[in-house]
Structure formats: structure tokens, C-alpha cells
Design goal:
Blueprint (H helix, E strand, L loop, with lengths): L12 E7 L14 E2 L2 E2 H10 L5 E5 L15 E4 L7 H14 L4 E6 L7 H9 L6 E6 L3 E9 L3 H5 L8 H6 L4 E3 L12 H15 L1
Parallel strand pairs: 1-4, 1-6, 4-5, 7-9
Antiparallel strand pairs: 2-3, 6-8, 7-8
Amino acid sequence: MVGPMDTIRQPRVLVVVLAAGQARRFGGNKLEQPCAGQPLGLWALQAAAATGHPVVVVSAVPQPGFAAGWQDRSEICVNPDAQAGLGGSIRIAAQAAQAQGADILVTMLADMPLVTPALIASLAATCTPQSASACLYPGMVPGIPAAWGCALFPQLAAIDPASGGRPLLRQVAGLVTHAADPAMLLDVDVPADLHQAERALLMRTE
């Protein structure tokens, strides 16, 4: 006999690693830079894959160097107008989520190597199809990594390419926020950030 709990379908989650940035402040080629023994961008990709959910990488090129060898484990979607801004990559992420029939979309940045699988999983678990969940930054500002319910996919798919997801997060009713360790939310923008991230990652393995 099938009980009521047996008929409940778990939400389908898609994790998208946004990796199409131009890295102008860093001087270019950021995600391929060595960081604690491997390319910087690979840390985020590994964290996404460790959740067990399907993973998509949005890149400016069809074969991003940091993801070499991962093409059979994650889908690569190319943003042909990456220089227009992060919003264009978020659009592609939403379109991928719609195409895969996902209920929840988690968006994260490839240059945030300290984000853990546990944080990604927590964002997905606290997101509903009608709402969103996001990390909380200083000043009570919600931001990426964030999880989006499928009711928001049409808005994400139409977002301004020059905009990020924060303006939309501020408008979401019932938004769940996560007060993650600020150190975990380090975004590698300049070489000094890379050195800071490397020190933190090496400390994790000691």
C-alpha cells in the first residue's frame, strides 16, 4: 500500500555556476588562476557537484579551462554577450532551469571558492517554488548565492543584462535569508582576494 508520504515528489533542483565574467579588475583569466592546488573556478564547481544536484556552468566560452574534464558531469551554456553584465548569465540560468523542468534554481558565482556544499543545499532546502532564499550580506542586503523558486523563473529570464539578482531579491515576498559566515562569501575580484581565498582553503585542509 502506498502511503501519503510516498506520493510526495522532492523538488527538482538545478545548481548553476555563473562563470562568464570578464574579470577586468583582476586583469583577466581569473578562474584559471591556481588557488590552493587547482584552478580558482573549480572550487565552486566542485561544491555545486557535491550537492548531488544537476549542475550547469554559464561561461563566455564553450570549453572553460577551469572546468576541463567536467563536460560529462555538468552542462556548459555559453553566454554570447557576457560583457553586457551578470544579468545576461542569470537569464541563461533561468532558461536552463525552465528547460530542465526544475522547481528550484540555485545561482552561485565561480569566483567564490569558499562557498560550501552545505550552504548551497541549505539555500535549496529553504526555497519554495513561489519564493526565494539568499545569503545575507552586511547592511542586511540579500545576494548570491541564492535559490529561486520556479514562479520567479520568468522574471529571471527577462532580467536586465546589466543588472544582477539583488534588485529582484529585494522584491520577493517571503524571502528567506541566510546569515552565512562573511568569510565564506569572499568574492575574488583582485589578486589580493585570491591570496586570501587560498589561505582560507589551505586552512580547511590542515
